[in-house]
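Follow-up to my earlier ticket, as requested here are the two runs.
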Amino acid sequence: MNVNNFKFFLFSFFTLILNITSAQTIKGTVKDLEGKSLNAKILIKKPDSTNNISEFVLVNKGVFFYPLKKKYTFENIFLEVSAIGYSTYEEQVEFSKLKNTLVFNFVLLKEKIEKLDEIIIKSKKLPFSIKKDTVIYQVSSYLDGTERKVVDLLKKLPGIKVDENSNIIKYKGKQIETVTIDGDNLFDQNYSIGTKNINIDLVKEIEAIENYTENELLKGIENSDKVSLNLKLKESKTDFSLNTELGIGHFSDAKETLIDASVNLLAINKKHKSFSVSTYNNIGKNKSSFNYSNNQISLEQLRESNYLTDKTINSFGLPNVTENNLSNINNEFFSNLNSIYTLSDKIKAKVNLYYITDRITSNQFSESNFNIGNNSFSTFDNNFIRKKPLQYRGDLELKYNITKSSLLKYEIRFSDEFIDTESTIFSNQNKDFSSFLQSNSTFIKQNIEYTKKISDKKAFQFNLLNTQNNLNQNLSINPSIFNSPNFNQDVQNIDSKNQNTTFKALFLGRKENGNKYSFASGFRLNKELFVSDLFSKNSIDSISIENSKNNLEYSKNEIYSYGSYNMKINKFTISPNYSFRYLMQNTTIANSDIFLFEPSLNIVYKIDRTSIISFDLGLNKNTSSIQNLYERHIL
């Protein structure tokens, strides 16, 4: 080290020592009159400073020790002491006293509380609110004056989508189970009756409910992924409401006056809840819960597909050319009654009655023009379709609350449906062609269910179901496609039947950590019959077509057991499942017995309230449909 560096080091060292030994320090305590140590803040202020505050000290548990970072010479400073709930104290310190360490013992007085005038803060009400698994939409927040019925508003609500062709409503991409009115399931799967016909001005709120369970005894126990909507009615309009609508129009070339009319009645009291509707229109609208314009399967048909006989010959579907399907002309009359009666403290009855008749007509014209070299020609088909459906249906449900923890339910349904479909095609390339299809379907369903709640976390249930569906179809085609010189018509007759009996014993439970499990066992008995015949005829005679007769009996009986476990780990829901089945299949030509093991795994990751990622893995084996077992021709 040279001499200059050594001198610089000594100068810096002695300067630092001098600054430390001459540092100005304040220390002391901050307490209240009762001697309680306080957490406080001390502001050091210079009277001539623009910013005023020079330094500050944080007092922890009433004690502070603070070397001042700045030199205060020839000027006074102010110490301002403040603590929450206490009056601020301020003291002046002369500059001449800052040469040494100063000790302060500050005592603060409690702040005087004065009553302030009331302040009202108003904010715009949110259009929806969230309560656990329920999103509550405030109807008034979404109205713009164009809505008349409930379905008009549902199309505008975020997260809800309405399919006008199938009448299916989805919430967050999942099909809803039903639409209830003030918590009562008045419509079951035919909820479109309510959404299409209930006036929106009767409704105060629309609730979207996840993890929906209709059976009160299974709430919190059943691992339900169902979704439902609940209409909360305005209190002033829930006793009695009658609404009528009438629209009349006329086109200059129309053969009849255009009418769109409806009348509906909503009546609610402590012992009775009822909604009835009657509609008539001939402007192409479908105001019923049934879809006869095309062959799209409804939600109810999808859920009962195992009990219904497949229509071997489908009736013609009418194309949906315009958005509201006004390309078809109809003549629809629909009437429906839905009622829930409280017969006693323990017994409730629900009645659903349906009647619909319609005449749907459509004219489809297609033309193609061709230019080949110097030659040009055109082809056209002019197709006239007329469809006449008629259906009677009645549902009855009885609920008997034996005790507070046990419930007995009985359901019966009867429906009789007739559909006549006529089609005529005029063409410049072939002979004129016509067909006429008659279908008659009778369906009976009975179900008895007993539920026993063992505790808040356990329950068991027994269920016995029996269904029968008879379907007759008759198709006639003119001219005969077999080119027989003596016969001008072909006729296809089909008689089919589907019978089901199912018994299930179910045990459900929930653990302390919220995980849920279920185990079931039972049996299914299914028998299908199919008879068909094809022949050509004229006005006098008929002849059977070779290799055209079917007489098939197909039974599928099984004994089964399945189980599932549902666990939640943070944002993950993991559900392993298993199924054991012993399946016995019998036909008129072969028999087969097989033991099946079908495991599956479902994993769901919840990103947020509106987004999930799901993963499904499983093995499933299905039996063949009876339509795959026909031995002879079907026209």
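Run two:
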Amino acid sequence: MCIRDSYSGLQDIGIALPLTGRTIPVVLDHHVQREFGTGALKVTPAHDRDDYEIGLRHDLDRIKVMDDHGIMNEAAGEYAGLDRFACRKKIVADLEEQGLLEKIEDYDHAVGKCYRCGTVVEPTTSKQWFVSVRPLANKAVEAVREGRIRIYPSNWYNTFYSWMDNIRDWCISRQIWWGHRIPAWTCGSCGQLLVAVEAPSACDQCGSTDLVQEDDVLDTWFSSALWPFSTLGWPEQTKELEIFYPTSVLITSFDILFFWVARMMMMGLHFMDEVPFRDVYLHALVRDKHGKKMSKSTGNVIDPLDTIEQYGTDAFRFTLTAFAAQGREIRMDEDRIEGYRHFINKLWNAARFAQMHIKECDPAITAVAESPADLALPHRWILSRTNETVREVRRALDEYRFNDVASHIYQFIWHEYCDWYLEWIKADLYGDDTTARDNARGVMLQVLEVILKLLHPVAPFVTEEIWSVMPGERTSIMIERFPEENQAWRDEAAEASMELLMGIISTVRTIRSEADVHPTRLIEATLLCGDPDKRDLIGHFSGAIRAMVRAEQLHILDSGIVPDDAGHALFQDIEVFVPLKGLIDAAGEIAKLAKERGR
């Protein structure tokens, strides 16, 4: 009998157990909850995990009252031979008959059941095989503390240390049908236990050949812990073992950091005297869009094959990469997969547009990018942005921030390369200036090659297909070198100038959109800019600006007054206004705004 350790004076007495007459001791322990029940708890150290721990703390007897088939044994007294459920009913009836039952109450209880057949699982004690892991754990902890093994994200270090510092001996035996049998034999003549690598032919104690191998099999995680070197021919010193052990990085889910990752560390350091891997990246678990775990019974499972059939493999891969933030869960939303399918289509259409202009080109045309100082501003800008994207992607890969990899690639391809650069160079591609056209084609091809290489690890199929039809003799993109930074492309001044021009264009487009000016209507725009250098820059590219905002006139002034009938906005220190008279229904717009304000 166990009572809360705040009671005193009761621990020196014994209590007679009803129905059996067995005397049991009273012990004090913090495990008992005073708020639940009477504050006293009968413990069965042989039939409950928590009770087993209490028994260890107080050196209690571990009495098994049923066998492995759920039948009560001789320790159950007069109930021996009864099935466990029948026994429980009879005990309740006997207690009630003898006036020992005060009341019966219902309460919630977590009852373990077999996941296959639903049978209630009865905890019990049994003879098992254990590995003393404290010496192994100490080596693994030392390797992590010294930085020979790094864990990403870093917030898992504390969890790892907590598990390892409180580690217990590892039970490696399992009572299941399939697995690696434990290499232990018992002599039927003298009872001698033999453990050996090779099956013994006779007992080394008495010489008997009556040897029976252990029926238990090794824990799955024990076998898995040997994986980094057992798959490479160990214990033989093979060429594969020499080349591939240790490996670079292990990628797995955070929920098996202890079950698998830590055990591979321990086994690798013990048997190979070397860490099995340098980095461990722990990814999140994929759940549904509401954060619930996927299960067939709930009906929220996303079949990857169905998803691939609907959206494409590359779109699905990119979605998972974009979601792979360093956290505990990924919420899978099919709407996001649809969005990234549009992204893959965007790249495909951009490549088709580029192919129209470069299919007959000599690939050497990309050499124009080797001297960016001689190129026009849009080319210098896109090369600088390409260099920055390569830098950010490589850094994110080195730090296992795969979602940032996807984000940098997405933003660059969609918004900078497609939305801005390809639009900006159309005048050169379709113009009569052959030098301007060749420069545009060369830079466009060069940047597209970098884009495909950056994206290939995430979206291998579309990038391989596009790469195969680009001009020149090409092998598979997968054996190309991954892009590296090119400092010659870095041009902060070009980026600042293009940011100004793109900001002005976006501001005028916003005014048009908010005023609901029809896309085909030509407008007149005015810029008030007091900085002469900025006025010169804007004036140099006024033709491109007019084409992109559909303006027949663009006035660039150092000062002025904004008319009352104009749409007006500010970008940096430049005032932008667009006269709207004759372009919109003023009365209708006023009525619409009044309605919105009223709502």
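The only thing I checked on run two: The radius of gyration is 37 Å. Let me know what else you need.
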